[in-house]
Amino acid sequence: MTRTQITLTEEQYRFLTDYSRQTGESLSSIIRRAVDRLRSQEEPPNRRVLGLIGAFQADRTDISVRHDEILWRAEPEPEPAPVTRRGRRTRR
């Protein structure tokens, strides 16, 4: 096991110590069980998203480049003006 230190609010600490006294279970054990319960109930969002990679076919070839615009209807970022040989940007 890995040893760690956490900071709790007074209310959280009081609850844990009261619960510990009533059940005879150590604070560490209570916290480990709470973490295990959280792990079983929730999957990290990024892990769910990664499972979608390659799961669908698309009729577009630019999805990997323009995903924010496509998914969130964000405005595309304007492309920078071309640079001249002297290092200046041209006007559009």
Main sheet? Answer: none
Number of strands: 0
Elements, N to C (H/E): HHHH
Please, how many helices? 4
Report the portion of residues in β strands: under 5%
Radius of gyration, CA atoms, in whole angstroms: 26 Å
**Mean residue pLDDT:** 82
The backbone outline, from C-alpha atoms, is elongated
User: What structural class do you assign from the helix and strand content?
Assistant: mainly alpha
Q: Name the poorly predicted regions.
A: none
| Helix fraction bin | 40-55%
Measured between the Cα atoms of the first and last residue, the distance is 62 Å
Short description:
With 92 residues, the protein is an all-alpha fold. It has four helices and no strands.
Topology (SSEs and partners):
Elements: H1 10-23, H2 27-41, H3 45-50, H4 63-72
